[in-house]
Amino acid sequence: MHDIKWIREHPDAFDRALGRRELPPQARVLIAIDERRRAAIQKAEAALARRNAVSREIGAAKKSDDQTAAEKLMAEVAQLKEIIPALEAEEKNVSRELDDALAQIPNMPLDEVPDGRDEAANIEHHRFGAKRNYGFAPEQHFDLGEALGQMDFEAAAKLSGARFVILKQGLARLERALGQFMLDLHTREHGYTEINPPLLVVDDVMFGTAQLPKFAHDQFRTTTDHWLIPTAEVPLTNLVRESIIEETALPIRLTALTPCFRAEAGAAGKDTRGMIRQHQFAKVELVSITTPEASMDEHERMLSCAEEVLRRLDLHYRVVTLSTGDMGFASQKTYDIEVWFAGQNAYREISSCSVCGDFQARRMNARYRGKERRLVRYPHTLNGSGVAVGRALIAVMESYQQQDGSIAVPEVLQGYMGGMKVIERGG
Question: What is this structure's pTM?
Answer without folding.
Answer: 0.91
